[in-house]
Amino acid sequence: MVEAVMADPDGIRIVAQPIVDLVTGRIVGHEALSRFDRRLGWGPQQWFGCAHACGLGARLEAAAIDAALCVPDRPAGTYLTVNVSPSTLGTRALGEVLPCDLSGLVFELTENESISADPTLPATLRGYRRRGAQFALDDVGSGHARLADIALLAPELVKLDRSLITSLDDDPARASAVEELVHAALSTGAQVCAEGVETLQQLRWLHRAGVTHVQGYLLGRPHTGWAADSPALDGLVQQARTPALLNRFQTPSPQRHDRFRGGPSSWTGRKPWRLIAAS
Prior knowledge:
Elements lengths: L1 H6 L5 E9 L5 E9 L8 H10 L3 H13 L9 E6 L7 H4 L9 E5 L11 H10 L3 E7 L6 H7 L3 E4 L1 H5 L5 H16 L3 E4 L5 H10 L3 E2 L16 H10 L13 H5 L1 E2 L14 E2 L2
Parallel strand pairs: 2-3, 3-4, 4-5, 5-6, 6-7, 7-8
Antiparallel strand pairs: 1-2, 1-8, 9-10
């Protein structure tokens, strides 16, 4: 079945979900998400899980990344994030579908494998970075990704697992833990993206906590093609920057947010997500 999907030009359909800068309110990137034939009743995780179990995981991931790179007319100045297992990065299958210049491409390292188990991974990442690629550590806080992984890989972006965000409003202890996680990630020079944002209240809390990027149904659902900036989107972010209603959650410590400043930059010579320390 997996081989049939890879052989079919329409076997993998790509949808994109916007990633929004929480300072400017602009869409700065999109995450490419794979969709497969639904007649079998399998979701993407099941397809990729089956592929890895059959020894075809790297090939299916490479095919999905190739499909994402082939989607035309990506807005200028935005980046594209694609999910990849650490073990796939060094494979021929992936190398065959990538262009030489990887500027504007962000590899989201999935947590289905142990990162620390591969001693060659940091060197592999350095090679990709020399070609312009960036890296994100996905699903941080899900129980798999650890702060040690952030220190080891020095990702440009840390993505908070959606399970952390959905529980903010009814779990003060979890909210406090999220604040600590955001602070730790920012202190490494990475920026932080919260996934699964669905309410304005969550958006306000995340802004106060120092989160720099957001992604979720509130900002835009995954769909075919690329999302565009809009007054409505900008209005949401402007509302998030107001202090109203913060008492619903445990309010994050504002001084932690104030220790950092800096927003996104274009894909130029320097890393676009490195924060500028407050003077």
